[in-house]
Amino acid sequence: MRLASHGDGRVGVVDGHELVDVSDVVAGLAPGTGISLMRRLIGAWPAVSAALAELDGPRWPWREATLAPPVPDPSKIIAAPVNYRDHQQEMSQDFHVDGLGVFLKAPSSLIGAAGTVRLPYHDRRFDHEAEVALVIGRPARSVTAHEALGHVFGYTGLLDITMRGGEDRSTRKSFDTFTPMGPWLVTADEFGPPDDVLFELALNGRVRQQASTRDLIWGVPELVAYASSVMTLLPGDVITTGTPAGVGPVADGDLIELDVTGVGRLTVDVSARGAVTCPTRGAGRGPVPPPADHQPAAGHRATARDRK
Ligand code: MN
Question: Strand ranges (DSSP E) for 160-294?
Answer without folding.
Answer: 162-163, 179-187, 198-203, 206-212, 238-240, 248-249, 255-260, 264-271
